Amino acid sequence: MRTGGVFVMPAIEIRNVKKRYKALQALKGVSFTVEDGEFFGLLGPNGAGKTTLISILAGLARADEGSIAVRGHDVVADYRNARRNLGVVPQELVFDPFFTVRETLRIQSGYFGLRNNDAWIDEVMANLDLTEKADVNMRALSGGMKRRVLVAQALVHRPPVIVLDEPTAGVDVELRQTLWKFIARLNREGHTIVLTTHYLEEAEQLCDRIAMLRRGEMVALERTSTLLQRFAGTQLFLRFSEGVLPGELRALEVDPSNVNARQHLLRLASYDDVERILALCRANGCKLDEMEVRKADLEDVFVQVMNGPEVVEGLA
Ligand code: ATP
């Protein structure tokens, strides 16, 4: 990327990465670039290959084919420099239970050759509301607190590129807010952030750009606002007290796999569609319990992309 005539190294460059586990092709040739300073979302349903990709990025697994570079450093050939530039918050909580929070963070600093790192460790702990727990043993912490330590551990060496693999899975609202405030600040200060999450409203709010993976393949890569415009648009929510959706409206369902016969979310090409849809419903003996016109969100986009890239047009 060029900014003001200066070439800026991409934060992460992923080229044609393939990974197979026995019969399962977990990644089928994934390529994309995360630019320096971006807040980037990597989304996909369970088993799409997100964690596999992050493991290869972090040097914990090897790709069968393809390459990944972190700020120009190949994660295999130049592992040490790639690792130095990267902070990864893994999905799983794995700790040595005998150390306190502060000791855990000091040991992690030691891996990166950082000795006098206490000022930054204190700052990270304060920002993650961990200060009170600094001298508590890891085994005595709740799951949410352990997750905060995982985040702190990934940040001890002030990595320019931070990857968070579902950091808010199973954590309370308070931690989510604390965490996002801190991560957003780091992003404003120039850190690149890559996030995987199943909370799509978080991704919608935070991410500049979003990649979607489905069964090891990239199915979308767009600016968040473009994705929302392209796929989402406006929708009509209907709940029937009597009758079923006329067959000719089935094609408009946002989620084609919807099995609830009473509730339907239909894609609108324009507001004129509302009148035509309601007239059709009336003609077919449907009675409405509830009706609402909604702006689609990232969750709707996700459902549409995962059900196939084609966007069904509005009423003919
Ligand atoms: P989730 O949202 O559930 O975390 P994910 O997108 O991170 O999913 P991965 O964990 O990368 O998906 O898994 C991709 C596929 O590879 C899955 O089908 C998974 O079962 C399989 N897989 C992952 N790790 C291994 C392994 N070590 N051995 C065999 N299969 C694996």
TrEMBL record:
Q: Which PROSITE patterns match?
A: ABC_TRANSPORTER_1, ABC_TRANSPORTER_2
Q: What is this protein called?
A: ABC-2 type transport system ATP-binding protein
In which domain of life is the source organism classified?
Answer: Bacteria
TM annotation in the entry: none
**Which keywords has UniProt assigned to this entry?**
ATP-binding, Cell inner membrane, Cell membrane, Membrane, Nucleotide-binding, Transport
Please report the stretch or stretches of sequence annotated as the ABC transporter domain.
12-240
Alphabetical list of InterPro entries matching this protein: AAA+_ATPase, ABC_transporter-like_ATP-bd, ABC_transporter-like_CS, ABC_transporter_ATP-binding, P-loop_NTPase
Q: Drop me one GO molecular function for this one.
A: ATP hydrolysis activity
- Xref: PANTHER family: ABC TRANSPORTER ATP-BINDING PROTEIN (PTHR42711:SF10)
